[in-house]
Automatic annotation (TrEMBL):
Active site: H99
Any one GO molecular function term: hydrolase activity
UniProt keyword annotations, A-Z: Hydrolase
Domain HIT: 9-114
Protein's name according to its UniProt entry: Hydrolase
Matching SUPFAM superfamilies: HIT-like (SSF54197)
Coiled-coil region list: none
Motif Histidine triad motif location, chain numbering: 97-101
Any one of the GO BP annotations: nucleotide metabolic process
Organism of provenance: Dioszegia hungarica
């Protein structure tokens, strides 16, 4: 169930009710160091506007997100990093407020630090099935 504005931890951080280790702030975003990092320098960029998922976030609130992520990635000194954004419980979203992770991935750390992912290719989809999916998505754009 989506958190209300009154109970959303990220909304409380935006309002200053909960402290954070603020890295940067614009009119529309707040960026801070993750307090449960999976790598040194793991940071979050959140829109100030409360929206549970990316598809709920108005486009007018998105302009500063990627520039903030880029600045933080550069400032972290990470040569390798992941930008991660989850939507919904099945996709591992824990806080019901859109947020983006910048997660450094030190090459020498292997799978001991940073994001550990696999990429299971859906090999049982035929080219016709892929084309049907493409046509469906394209028709909705």
């Amino acid at each position: 169930m989506a958190a209300s504005l009154a109970t959303c931890i990220f909304c409380k951080i935006v309002k200053g009710e909960i402290p954070c280790l603020k890295l940067m702030e614009t009119e529309s975003v707040l960026a801070f160091v993750d307090i449960g990092p999976i790598a040194k320098g793991h940071s979050l960029v959140i829109p100030k506007h409360h929206a549970a998922t990316l598809s709920d976030l108005p486009e007018s609130e998105m302009a500063d997100i990627l520039p903030a992520l880029k600045k933080i990635a550069i400032a972290s000194g990470a040569q390798n990093y992941n930008i991660l954004q989850n939507n919904g419980r099945a996709a591992h979203q824990v806080v019901d407020h859109v947020h983006f992770h910048m997660i450094p991935k030190p090459a020498e750390a292997g799978d001991k630090e940073g994001l550990v992912i696999g990429w299971p290719v859906q090999k049982d989809l035929s080219k016709d099935e892929i084309k049907t999916i493409y046509e469906d998505i394209k028709s909705r754009l």
